[in-house]
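Complex record, two chains
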Amino acid sequence: MKIRRFAGLTAMVAAGALALSACGSGDTGSDDATGAADGASTGIVIANGTEPQNPLIPTNTNEVGGGRIIDLLFAGLVYYDADGAPHNDVAESITSDDNTTWTIKLKDGQTFSDGTPVHAENFVKAWDYGALLSNKQLSSYFFESIKGYSADEDASLVDGGGLTVDDDLTFTVVLTGPESDFPLRLGYSAYYPLPLSAFDDMEAFGEAPIGNGPYKLDEWNHNVEAKMSPNESYTGDRQAKNGGVTFAFYTDLNAAYNDLLAGNLDVLDQIPDSEIANFESDLGDRAVNQPAAIFQSFTINVNLPHFGMDEEGLLRRAALSMAIDRDQITDVIFQGTRTPATDFTSPVINGWSDSVPGNEVLKFDAAKAKDLWTQADAISPYSGTFTIAYNADGPHQAWVEAVANSIKNTLGIDAEGLSYPDFATLRADVTNRTLTGANRSGWQADYPSLFNFLGPLYGTGAGSNDGDYSNPDVDRLLSEGLSADSVEAANAKFQEVQEQLFKDLPAIPLWYQNVSGGSAETVDNVEFGWNSVPLLYEVTKG
Amino acid sequence: MAWYAARRLLQLIPVFLGATLLIYAMVFLLPGDPIAALGGDRGLPPAVAEQLRAQYHLDQPFLVQYGLYLKGLLTGDFGMSFSRRPVADLLAAAFPTTLKLAGLTLVIEAVAGIGVGLWAGIRKGGIFDSTFLVISLVLIAVPIFVLGFAAQVLFGVRLGWVPPTVGGNVSFRTLILPAIVLASVSFAYILRLTRTTVAENRTADHVRTATAKGLSGRRVTGVHVLRNSLIPVVTYLGTDVGALLGGAVVTEGIFNIPGVGNLLFSAINRHEAPTIVSVTTFLVIVYLISNLIVDLLYAVLDPRIRYA
């Protein structure tokens, strides 16, 4: 072993020297890769990104690669600060008397980067476009609570009475029911306005979007990079404090990490798994490791034998939950970049609590777990292997194996991970309900609200209710929360929802994912937002 | 010879059809629903998913999908990626980068491999020969990603001689390190191939005759030994072009090179049949053409070879 490694190193150096001597002359190395900036805060910040998977239309951008570009190109009615608190951006006010009919007034004098004004119709037309099914927008479900929306057929929100333009700077939104957290979600990209020119040719617009945000898109070299410069016509709070932002696209995070170490990359918002153990010592105080709005769990469909919402199923769910040593797994496998869960949401969300009654079921208790499982076996004996399905193209294998082992050792049953080659394959089996075991599940919030972690996942028939969980009490409490007259009152209802969830465990909570990232010495004022994306407009360089 | 070349080019047509059909079938057989994956953990409204499936013909049976793809090809349409970009554009953007990388790699491995191999063959059994035999063994044994990461960390991060990755900055300076890494394995093979044939040819009759005639050592080696020894090396280089263009996925990933390998990698991740099939077919064609060039080169190296 030793000899071979040493020989390998020699060979590498030899090969390198050989090639260098062969090519040493001729090239003077005229290109300047790092582009050292001069002047205060006029430097162009280089951040990591990935090639957007879809054209850059706000209602069609549902993945982080395109999302982080869109968020800089557009300004919504509200924006979120680093703590997830909403502030008005384009909106002057968002008001309602009954949480159902919302009147939205816009600030005067705002324009898109092409000079056209930002008016009420820019929002109304954009949302109507996004909701119309035949436009095949990936985020169309964001409009499902607006009157007139249909998930089955083409239905216009305007014709259905959900959206009305009152005057240039005012429009009205009518929801199908009260939603106290409606203003909270309006910072999400699906709710951005579009210039009227976009509707002439949406496909072309997706290639070269024109926004009203702090930056404008200068160049999008597909699969390589997206270059943006400050948009002078933007008047909101998110003013660019640098000379521009360039997203360099990476297919391999290790390459991005090495670029960060070498100073070729200024901000990295995700540390590759292989560097998790040492990134904090590598980067020192430029390392970032803080909880994010990402909740991870595994879900067992309630229609699986032995795991229904009956006495046996509830005993088994509680037993599984108590059989997992979350502290040990987050420490050993994730090196402290996950925080053991104490509820179904995330600590960065307003209203979060670590003391929801019933959450002791998340504490590792081998004896109790074994006892509960034996009680369940008395009702109907369990045989076979308990599987947790995961996609191997994400960093899941290690923890799934660890969780399975924890279950196996505590309960004395066969438990193992079930590997799927990629996310698409796993998703197909989850949607078709063909799994015979649990599947890994997770939720990254679209907007900072407790409801966003609960409604879409555990409401009867909700879009992401992969476990087919249904509980009338939960449904009632969710809708009571939505019609509450204050955010505090709403949050109280949502915590009652969680109490019920701890009894039923439709998903077994595991941990919150931290955002782990870092920045190079070239930049200052790097702060990560509630959604794990750095607030790049605040970063200074030079 | 022109007729020979034309006949070889005509053979491309069945190969093209066969390759696209095979690759299309393989992509079709991939498990999973790419449209479902587009929605992420949240999933898509069924009506939207259905329309997207129809848009990419994913709701059609295999032969219809393939037929539509072929029909598109005949009209110069290579299909659309899920990001609504013509595959032809994607390929046109990625290929020049890969071509530069492959070209540089080919030069490095050929010059270094033949040079060292020739020297080692002449001084067979000497210290130089033995050293490079060991080195070549190691290069063949160490996986390319180990070599790639080690080189990236050492020369890119620690020493800072070259940028660790390429990205949008494709130049000689950024490509040199990935090219060396990519060349390393082939360098080892070429070295060994050259060394063996040179050592063999040095004892051949015509070489002894040439030496006996009183020709200088340099001329004997250059004209009589090397030229004959190059035939297997050129064959290897020819097949290596194909490998370089398609098999550079790992290297392109490590050094973040926006080339064909990366394009193919992300297309496979997203199950984008038109992209995968078009890129792979393109690589098959490049491979065939480079082999044709190799065959034609034989006549230059060895005048005894004639084409019928």
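Note: Residues 87-270 of chain B form a domain with the MetI-like fold fold (CATH 1.10.3720.10).
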